[in-house]
Each structure stands twice: as C-alpha cells, then as structure tokens.
Amino acid sequence: PKCWAVVPAAGVGKRMQADRPKQYLPLAGKTVIEHTLSRLLASGAFQKVAVAISVEDPYWPELEISKHPDVITAPGGKERADSVLSALKALQGKACEDDWVLVHDAARPCLTASDIQLQIDTLQNDAVGGILALSSHDTLKHVDGDTITATIDRKHVWRALTPQMFKYGMLRDALQQTEGNPAVTDEASALEIMGYQPKIVEGRPENIKITRPEDLALAQFYMEQQA
Ligand code: CTP
Ligand code: MG
Predict the structure, then answer these.
(1) In the structure, what pLDDT confidence band is assigned to residue 196 with cuts at 50, 70 and 90?
(2) CA distance 162 to 40
(3) Distance 11 CA to ligand 2 centre (A)
(4) How far is the CA of 148 from the centre of ligand 1 (A)?
(5) What's the rounded Cα separation, in Å, for the pair 106 and 134?
(6) C-beta separation of 160 from 131 below 8 A
(7) What would the pLDDT profile of 71-92 be if each residue is shown by its tens digit?
(8) Average pLDDT value over all residues in the chain
(9) Which of 39, 117, 152, 163 is packed most tightly, with the most Cβ within 10 A?
(10) Pocket test for ligand 1, best of 24, 54, 80 (most atoms within 8 A of CB)
(11) Sheet of 129-135, strands arranged across
C-alpha cells in the first residue's frame, strides 16, 4: 500500500495570541507551515500531501509551497477533525481504501524523516495503525476540583503526538461516523470510538506542537540542534 500525508492547517491559533494563525509565524527563516510541509515532502514517503486550509486564509496563496505539484489544498472545517476529513475527501479517487494516511499537524514543524520512517516501518503490517506518542516524566494525578483523588500509573498513560497513521478507508469512515463528537480530538480517538485498538510508537519530545508564544523559541532551538 502507498502512503499519503494529510496536514490540518486551518486553525486560528487562539492560544498563540499572535496577529496571524501560528502556522504562518516566522521560524528559522521561513514560516512554521513551510518547515512542516518541506519536511513531509523531503521524506519521499508520500504520494501527495493534502493540506486543509481555511477558506478565507490570505497567507496560504502567498507561499511558494502552495503551488508545489505534490501539494493538494482542501477547505478547512470547524474543528480539526472536520479539516482532516475534508483533506481525506480531496484524496478520494487517488488513495486506495487500504493505503496508509499519516495525519500531521501543521503546527509541528520539528518532525524528522526518521520519525516518519520509524512509524511506517513499525506499523506497516498492522491491521489498524497507530500514533507517535510520548511517555510522561512527571508523576500524574487524577484530580477532582483542586483535590487529588488518585495517582495514575504512568506506564498506562501516553501523550498523543502526530503523525497519526491509519488506513485511508477506515479513517475516513471513522471520522464520518463520529462527526461532531467533541471527544474526537485526534484521529486515534475516532478509531477507538469505532472499537479499534490503535498502537503507539514512541516519538521524540522535540516533535512539539507550537501552541503558546514560548514554543517558537523552543522549536528554533531544536531546529538549530538538528541542523
Ligand atoms: N486545525 C485545523 N482546523 C481546525 C482547527 C485546527 O486544521 N478547525 C489544525 C491547526 O491549524 C493545527 C492543528 O490542527 O495545525 C492542531 O490544532 P491546534 O494546535 O489546536 O491549533 P489551533 O486550533 O489553530 O490553535 P488554538 O487551539 O490555540 O486556537
Ligand atoms: Mg485548536
């Protein structure tokens, strides 16, 4: 089966409190989304990269990479899951039901080719697929209001990153059937609701999601280390 990439990039970046969506902020010489897309394209792993872009986004058409022959643009949706489903639909007729799709946040520019390769190598013979994830170094507390009710066994708790790698047809169906469900905050949760059991592949802590202003400086630091 072939591999396709889907990049949700239609968020407004509210927590970033910047003058534009965070995927268009400058980072090490280009915008965040240009780093993300060029890394996906340079990996050589994907037939095409389908990017979900907000319909009134004035920044995207200004970027050279929006015209790249292997980049397909799809209209973004209300929630991240809607944007992902829209990008999947743009691959209809190109991707086969059984092909793999790796969904990766535009806001995670520090992804490396080895992250992608490890994930594909680990999951390519799996029936469902799975996600990059990180263990937690901190002790984790279950809390009710401001009171600790339990200490959670760390070995059972992982932090979900992207890429999230699933079968094209299975992921599309799962997102379609869970449309509007607020519990669907990533691809794996949609598959879980459908009764599947996605796998985890251990990722790297450098694969951060740019969320708050200080994350840009951290991403810059990681990129300097990678260079
Ligand atoms: N995203 C999207 N469509 C949406 C919401 C989010 O494509 N309706 C994308 C974002 O552009 C981002 C990724 O999903 O690349 C992860 O979402 P998040 O980090 O929450 O980004 P924002 O929603 O833009 O940020 P915030 O939640 O702070 O507003
Ligand atoms: Mg958001």
Answers:
(1) very high
(2) 12
(3) 6
(4) 31
(5) 19
(6) yes
(7) 999 999 999 999 999 999 999 9
(8) 97
(9) 163
(10) 80
(11) 71-75, 49-53, 3-9, 100-103, 158-167, 129-135, 199-202
pLDDT in tens, 101-154: 999 999 999 999 999 999 999 999 999 999 999 998 899 999 999 999 999 999
Could you please state the CATH topology (level 3) that the domain comprising 3-226 is classified under: Spore Coat Polysaccharide Biosynthesis Protein SpsA; Chain A (3.90.550)
Q: Which residue has the tokens 């090490």?
A: 28
pLDDT at 227 over 90: no
How many angstroms separate the CA atoms of 106 and 109, rounded?
7
Q: Give me 136's structure tokens.
A: 């937690």
Map tokens 């190598």 to a residue: 121
Please identify which residue in the block is written with the tokens 């092909």: 99
Give me ligand 1 centre to Cα 10, in Å: 6
Distances (CA, A) of 99 to 21, 47, 73, 93, 184: 31, 10, 20, 12, 22
**What one-letter code names the amino acid at 14?**
K
| CA pair distance 148, 3, nearest whole angstrom | 44
